[in-house]
Every structure is written in structure tokens, then in C-alpha cells.
Design brief:
About 35% of the residues lie in helices and about 20% in strands. By secondary structure, the chain is α/β, with parallel strands linked by helices. Strand 2 and strand 3 form a beta hairpin. The protein is elongated and about 70 Å long.
């Protein structure tokens, strides 16, 4: 990752700003912006907010001697860099995230579908997007689907877009499907999938498995209760001891 970000140093040769008035390196601003874009930042204000929220993480890669630049500074710097260079670096950056180096910005990947509010009308339905988001809030990929029911076919397609080896994939009950599990295992990742009561046979089988006294005698059990949003969440985890 660091080696690829060093390639941004060439931009310093084309910095036309007055040296005495420069606080933020052009290479750092562009580099931070790419991290922010992976986290679904849409404009310069979003990039600034992302940088302020994740400054500790970003300092692993950038000096940030004067902290985060303002959105006005980010906008001016983007106007200085050619679209061709930005596209070239974007391809390099995305390629890196899809390889082992991407492990530094992802561990747990949550697959989730969301309907974009406000972009539908009486002539067309609102967009429904299936995204893969890591624990730092980075969106590593997304697929546009017709509606929520098509998430089942979109998830395997999404998982094919990047390297998930060694990661933990989570989904809601919609994604608890045999073919999706096969895809995750084939790509050498782990998974935590949700179940609902309307998935009758599978839900009943899992309940019976965890109620089995022989199973409970050889596993570790954890329980956690915490307040979340407007309610109380209870999580119970049974981990089979394979040693």
C-alpha cells in the first residue's frame, strides 16, 4: 500500500501553488481522497469529514503535518490534477485493495442491500444497491439490482469482484443461501450468516444443533447484552472447540 501511495509523490513536481502558502501536500490530499472515496465519499465536504473521523488511521500512510485540509483546499487540488492521472491511479489503488495488501483496510466484510431514498419516482423504482463494507466503513464494491429479492444473485457476483481470503463475511437472512456459502468457502473466507423464523427447516435444524448437550459440552459459550439504537440487543455465541 505504502509503495503505491509513494507514486503520488510525482504530483509534487506539478504543484503550481505558492510554496510559502502551502500547508498540505498535493500527494497527501489525493491519497486521502481515494481512501474516502472507497468509503463512499461523494464530494470534497465528505472527504474532509471522512479524514477528520479517520485521522488516526490515515496517519499510518500520511504525515498530515497540519492536520486535515479543508474541503476548499481539496477542491482546488483536484482541479490541478488531470482526469487521466486520477483514473490511472484509481485503477492502481483498486487493484491493490483486491490483493493481499487490502487486508490492511478490511477484515470483517458486511454484505448489505439498501434502497437509495429520494431517487425513485412514479416512473421508476428507487435504486437498490448491494454493497460490501468493511469494519472501518470502507465500501469495497457494490452491485445495482432491480429489487431486494435479487440480492441473492447479486451477492456471489459482488464477492467475485475482490479478494476475500481470510476475511469474515456477514449478511442478513436474505444472504443465507447454499450457493453464497459455497462461494465464500471457495474463496477461502469465513462467514457469519443470519437466520429468521421464516426459514423454517434450516432455522429448526440450527436450533436443534445448539440444543444438543453433546455439542454444548465441547464448545465455548459467550453472551452479551447491550443497548443499540432504540432497543436492547442480546447476542449469544457458541464456538465449537476443534482442538
Amino acid at each position: 500500500m505504502i509503495d503505491v501511495l509513494k507514486e503520488l509523490k510525482i504530483l509534487e513536481c506539478f504543484d503550481i501553488r505558492q510554496a510559502g502558502k502551502v500547508l498540505h501536500k498535493i500527494s497527501e490530499v489525493i491519497g486521502i481522497s481515494f481512501f474516502a472515496m472507497v468509503a463512499n465519499a461523494d464530494d470534497c465536504v465528505d472527504i474532509q469529514h471522512f479524514g477528520e473521523a479517520h485521522e488516526e488511521f490515515l496517519r499510518k500512510y500520511f504525515e498530515l503535518k497540519h492536520g486535515m485540509p479543508s474541503h476548499d483546499t481539496i477542491q482546488r487540488i483536484f482541479a490541478m490534477v488531470s482526469a487521466e492521472y486520477l483514473q490511472w491511479f484509481r485503477d492502481r489503488f483498486n487493484d491493490l485493495l483486491n490483493k493481499d495488501e487490502g487486508e490492511k483496510v478490511r477484515k470483517i466484510l458486511g454484505i448489505d442491500g439498501k434502497t437509495q431514498c429520494g431517487n425513485g419516482n412514479n416512473k421508476q423504482k428507487a435504486n437498490h444497491i448491494v454493497s460490501a463494507v468493511d469494519e472501518n466503513g470502507f465500501s469495497l464494491g457494490e452491485v445495482l439490482v432491480d429489487d431486494k429479492s435479487n440480492e441473492i444473485t447479486a451477492i456471489p457476483e459482488l464477492l467475485d469482484n475482490f479478494n476475500i481470503k481470510g476475511n469474515i463475511i456477514t449478511t442478513d437472512a436474505m444472504g443465507t443461501q447454499r450457493e453464497i456459502v459455497k462461494k465464500i468457502r471457495k474463496k477461502k473466507a469465513d462467514y457469519v450468516l443470519a437466520l429468521k423464523g421464516n426459514q423454517g427447516t434450516l432455522n429448526d435444524d440450527v436450533k436443534l444443533y445448539f440444543e444438543d448437550k453433546d455439542f454444548l459440552g465441547k464448545c465455548e459459550y459467550f453472551k452479551k447484552i447491550e443497548k443499540a439504537r432504540s432497543g436492547i440487543e442480546k447476542r449469544e455465541i457458541s464456538c465449537e472447540n476443534l482442538h
